[in-house]
Design a protein that fits this description.
Length: 468
């Protein structure tokens, strides 16, 4: 085959696209991946999951060294922030991850076509990079172009004073006052980073609770815990104006339901009101690929668009905008293209917020079960009653298991607490196997571990928790 003919051409080298490319190559396809960014890995590795977790982890250690260890008899003096070094650490972490993907491409003989991809016809992609070339895909074109920041009318993101998550990962100094618009995942994670490093953080949220799509008890608990850590919340509030000043920005806030306006001054404003699918200059209208009313590429159960041979996965289609969801869709699509019966269980996709403590959730929330009229039982157990949590001096939070009232099948699990982002995987496995709360309760969990809270919550579904 000539250099510009491939079986599969993936547009976008993020977690959806690069994983799909690797799996397709493993299955014997000749694969190219078009990526216009200077490095592979997409939003997640370059300006999302990875740099944010590096800063979360570094800022956690800074705070712990400064305040958290004295109770355990560890006195640390002279703790200082070296922000350039912290940023350099974060950049190193990003570099090793994105280089890792490039290595995997070489290993799997995937061609990286550097430039902007545009579909010119089914089976044909034009790549505009240093030169412009046209490549063909005999089996599939995969749209994995991801998402971009949702702008807020009236606020111009300059990535210095008014920033998106991307600018919030590279601030040159700790702002004295940080206003965060949007009390969702990005707002709370990056608000935590800068709050720990010394900023006064005010979160302005349009709805009457933070993390509004998560289980209501999580929203309440996290508001209380983050409030104790110094974050201020202005809920049920909208931003109606922003005036840049000599130092920072003056925001005008109004109650979402109407009422008197107030002002909030901030040195830096982080806009984090969600992300939207990214399909700019992709040629979708020209080839007739349909999108829904939110701009997401419409696909069927096999990730195929309305145009045969053109598929889409990840943030650009329906569903949670999460890296692991994009990855799983990439794997499954590649396997389906190879004729395998493979599917993604969209009912069991965990969501984790990497604040401290962490939040983790999988399956249905209580609100969703009530709205659907499903009879359920709830078992809840707090970390305060767990020996290991006490021993590591991290007792905030709980695990809540929701099980079907009739069959005992686990329908959802919601957690706030230390390392719950790791603990939730046990529940994902359990739910994939259709486990009951009883199955989890009967499984031997090592002592003393944080995971015993999960077992106790499962026991609590039938009122049998042992340590409460
Ligand atoms: P993307 O990662 O967005 O990749 C799409 C790629 O396509 C981009 O590199 C883009 O340059 C390229 N592209 C687009 N159009 C073209 C074109 N026409 N031609 C060539 N290339 C093109 N998710 C988690 O699961 N866990 C987390 O902890 C987490 N943290 C996050 C933190 C932040 C600050 C942000 C912003 C997001 C975070 N996410 C997290 C979400 C996660 O980054 C996305 O869900 C994930 O990156 C989606 O993968 P994707 O492959 O669909 O798209
Ligand atoms: P989000 O959807 O999590 O939160 C946006 C918040 O902004 C919501 O609470 C919403 O009610 C609020 N909002 C919307 N319009 C508003 C307005 N005009 N004024 C005030 N508040 C407003 O979106 P976010 O935080 O921007 O993150 C984008 C995506 O990135 C998420 O969908 C998430 O899936 C992904 N992400 C995932 C992470 C993780 O898995 N740990 C970390 C960071 C991002």
């Amino acid at each position: 085959m000539a250099e510009n003919t491939f079986d599969v051409v993936v547009i976008g080298g993020g977690p959806g696209g690069y994983v799909c490319a690797i799996r397709a190559a493993q299955l014997g396809f000749k694969v190219a991946c078009v990526e216009k960014r200077g490095t592979l890995g997409g939003t997640c590795l370059n300006v999302g999951c990875i740099p944010s977790k590096a800063l979360l982890s570094a800022s956690e250690k800074f705070e712990e060294a400064g305040h958290g260890l004295a109770k355990m008899g560890v006195k640390v003096g002279g703790v200082e922030l070296d922000l350039p070094a912290m940023m350099a650490f974060k950049d190193d972490v990003v570099k090793s991850n994105v280089n890792g993907v490039e290595f995997l491409f070489k290993k799997n003989k995937i061609t990286w076509l550097k430039g902007h991809g545009r579909i010119t016809a089914p089976g044909t992609v034009e790549v505009a990079g240093e030169t412009t070339e046209t490549v063909t895909a005999s089996k599939a074109i995969v749209i994995a172009t991801g998402s971009d920041v949702t702008p807020l009318p009236g606020l111009t993101i300059d990535e210095t004073t008014i920033v998106s998550s991307t600018g919030a990962l590279t601030l040159a100094e700790v702002p004295k006052r940080l206003a965060v618009i949007g009390g969702g995942v990005i707002g709370l994670e990056l608000g935590s980073v800068w709050g720990r490093l010394g900023a006064e953080v005010t979160v302005v949220e349009f709805l009457d609770k933070i993390l509004p799509t998560m289980d209501g008890e999580i929203s309440k608990q996290m508001q209380r815990i983050l409030g104790k850590q110094g974050m201020t919340f202005k809920l049920g509030t909208k931003v109606t104006g922003a005036v840049p000043g000599d130092s920072g920005v003056k925001l005008t806030l109004e109650p979402a339901k109407g009422g008197a306006a107030e002002e909030l001054e901030a040195d830096v404003v982080l806009v984090a009101i969600g992300r939207r699918p990214y399909t700019d200059s992709l040629g979708l209208d020209e080839v007739g690929v349909e999108r829904d009313n939110r701009g997401r590429v419409k696909v069927d159960h096999h990730f195929q668009t309305n145009v045969p041979g053109i598929y889409a996965i990840g943030d650009v289609i329906e569903g949670p905008m999460l890296a692991h969801k994009a990855e799983d869709e990439g794997v499954v699509l590649a396997e389906q293209l190879a004729g395998q019966a493979s599917h993604v269980n969209h009912d069991v996709i965990p969501g984790v917020v990497y604040t401290w403590p962490e939040v983790a959730s999988v399956g249905k929330t209580e609100e969703e079960l009530k709205a659907a009229g499903v009879a359920y039982k709830a078992g809840k157990f707090p970390f305060t009653a767990n020996g290991r949590a006490r021993a590591i001096n991290m007792t905030d939070g709980f695990v809540k298991v929701l099980a079907d009232a009739r069959t005992d099948k686990v329908l959802g699990v919601h957690m706030v607490g230390p390392n719950v982002g790791e603990l939730v995987s046990e529940l994902c496995v359990a739910m994939e196997f259709g486990a009951s709360a009883e199955d989890i309760a009967r499984t031997c969990h090592a002592h003393p571990t944080l995971a015993e809270v999960t077992k106790e919550a499962a026991l609590a579904v039938d009122g049998r928790a042992l340590h409460m």
